[in-house]
Amino acid sequence: MSDYTIWHNPKCSTSRFVLQALQDAGAEVEVRDYQAQPPTVGELRAALDRLGLAPRGLLRRRNTPHDELGLGDPALSDDALIAAMAEHPALIERPVVFGPKGARLCRPKEAVFDLLAP
Predict the structure, then answer these.
(1) Which listed residue (3, 8, 11, 12) is catalytic?
(2) How many domains does the chain have?
(3) What is the CATH number of the domain that holds 98?
(4) Fewest CB within 10 angstroms: 12, 25, 60, 77, which?
(5) Helix pair angle (41-51, 78-87), 10° resolution
């Protein structure tokens, strides 16, 4: 069983940095390419709960269909945002790391060290 799980995008330099930091620390890491294996609505809700974030806190805008889908509308419900992220995983900000000390959206990338500190 892995110590950590990372929702990873191998094309993202921040995500690669965080994965390497976990591996360098000797952690066993389950790598989930969240765009190839998108999280379900239920998994997103659980992740948001662990992260202590509202859906907008995990919503990626840059290089995504955010604007085309009208996700900037403040009247959109959390349910609508979560459904959009489940359908279009590029909308999920990355990397997200789940570990024994909790979960963290590792932006900035150095946030991973908070999960590794003794």
Answers:
(1) 12
(2) 1
(3) 3.40.30.10
(4) 77
(5) 120
Closest by CA to 9, choosing from 62, 66, 70, is 62
pTM for the model stands at 0.93
Q: Half-sphere exposure (CA, 13 Å, Cβ side) for 59?
A: 23
Indicate if the alpha-carbon torsion angle 97, 103, 106, 111 is positive or negative.
Answer: negative
Tell me the C-alpha distance between 48 and 58, whole Å: 8
Active site residue 12: yes
Cα 55–Cα 44–Cα 3 angle in degrees, nearest 5:
120
Which domain range does residue 98 map to?
4-116
Task: Classify residue 102 as left (phi > 0), alpha (psi -120 to 50) or beta.
Answer: left
* 117 band by pLDDT with thresholds 50, 70 and 90: confident
